Amino acid sequence: MFDFDNFREIWSTMKKNKLRTFLTGFSVAWGIFMLVVLLGAGNGLKNGVMYNFRDMADNRIEMWPRWTSKPWKGMQPNRRLSFKDEDYYMLKIEHPEVDLASATVNHSDTLTYDKEYFTGEANGVFPDHAKINFVQFNPGNGRFINEMDIRDKRKVIVLSPRMAEVLFRDKNPLGEYIRCGHIMFQVVGIYHDKNMSNNAPAYIPFSTAQLLYNKGSGFYNLTFTVKGVTSEEENEAFEQRLRESLARRHMFDPTDTSAIGMWNTSNQMRMFGNMTNGILLFIWVVGIGTLMAGIVGVSNIMLVTVRERTREIGIRKAIGAKPSSILKLIIFESILITAAFGYIGMVSGIGLTEGIDYIMTLSGANDAPAGGNPGEDMTLFRNPTVSLGIAISSTVLLIIAGVFAGYFPARKAVKISAIEAMRTE
Length: 425
Prior knowledge:
Strand order of the largest sheet: 5-7-6-3-4-8
Structural class: alpha+beta
Radius of gyration: 34 Å
């Protein structure tokens, strides 16, 4: 049983060697401190990268027509392709993996209300567009395009917050009519956009946009989500089947990757995930290496302590001290050093990461908007904190390592015979 006398003896030994104890403990505290800080930095990088894609489904695929680069069945290359209506309607029939889908008719025009005007995009989309691209509405701000709007080719429009601010100022836009080019549209919603971006588009029913701006057929791009397609191999196989079905309808070589542009976010998410996981793995390796250096320092100090107290250990054994009591004394000294300084390192590391996170929150860096144009309104570092569970687990492992750091020197001390120990100068 560990009693107060043993603790007093360990404390007395540590006081006699203040500098040595401090330097040993500092190496332990620095190891756990650096591990926590590095993990916080790694999490901050991972959170920042993932935050930039928070408004985008991780299984989203976007396609658009381009030019062919290969001849096919007597047809020359460099043919300009265009999507047909059947490309949208056959998508779910030919590919059961497809979940949500929306086609887009892009249109730029001037929106006018009274004497105010705003030049921007009014894109024709299907209702699924909101779910695919996380278009959200605050309470009381209306709705998105619905199936009845598509079926009846209604002239309704959903505005961005910036459009609503410029056109209506302090007036409630819902139910009002605005002019888009030469056509009147009724405002049925204002979606949420934290950026208040000037580039955010308005949305109108796809069927209306197609009729007014695309001669009643065709569209610019096709966006959809897939389910049950997770691995890289499954994505490649799905993309190949997709190209083959489009190649049959549009008469181009299925191996011609230039004919159809394709952006698969799952590939990007997987790439970023692998990158951040690799960074975190490297951080763990560096952090654990730093910890191990501290543990080796503790073990070396325990060896020095045993060597200095060899004569004392011999006298203890000569007067009847049990080997277990000597073993326990040295191991507990090692545990005390690693536990005390490990705790200091853990608290310091958590305090620093939480302090940085607090400053970033006050400055608004943690709420940096995302989802704008490439390179615009992006953040690479966010919430650089470490979970308390990981920090405590690391400290507990450090203490366990401290047991082994003290055990081997202690075992060496126990194996020394009393006579040999007392002869030591």
